[in-house]
Write a structure and sequence with these properties.
Elements lengths: L7 H26 L1 H7 L5 H4 L5 H8 L8 H12 L16 H27 L21 H15 L8 H10 L8 H4 L3 H25 L4 H5 L1
Length: 230
Amino acid sequence: MQDVISNEDLAIGTFRRAISMVIPEMTRVALLSRRKEIVQDTPNFHRNEFLYHLSRTQYEKQWGTGYRKPGVGARILAFWLRVVPKVGPFKAVAFKIPTTKTEDMYIASIDSTVDGYGAMLREQRRGDLQLANLDLDTGREARAGEYSLADKTYARLLDDLTKHDIGGIPCELRTNILGFYANLNRPDATKKNKRARQTQDELDKLRANQASHVADSTSSGPPTKSETQE
């Protein structure tokens, strides 16, 4: 984890602080945009019952000051995105009120996530949890060409590993990487990258290392009777 997140406490603190600001802001927007529907569903509606505000002082008293604050560049970008007309390429940053159908799909996805997570926790307690190597964005099996960001991530992982002692790569990790690149005839985004040749060379080294491990384990075989007695 330290190779990916240099300061774990700072990363968690920054995420926690961001969520403590984003969710109340989302609630405020929902109240402004869906006030009529909320009043209909809740006859004794009172705005303050739906809003939750955690000041910086309250947050730091409970969680501490270990978080990264937005810099000047981030604040300027946020202001610029707020005032720029939402046309052309900037239509993607325009806020859109979700439809009832979209809201129902979101709630269903949350219910499914909670049910799935609960099932995994029960499997973990029984000691039979098996996690499939899935693309969590698409839900499909993780393999080369399925998702461009996964292709780039595996290519970088392979590059980082082969910079060190390739023989020290754990067997399970080596098998996983080779399994990911098992079918290179697929339209793999890695092939379009300038580092494609380098990735292919690193794969060849990893395959050779895998074959060497298999050959060693086969040649050694089970211990003989004399070796066992010794």
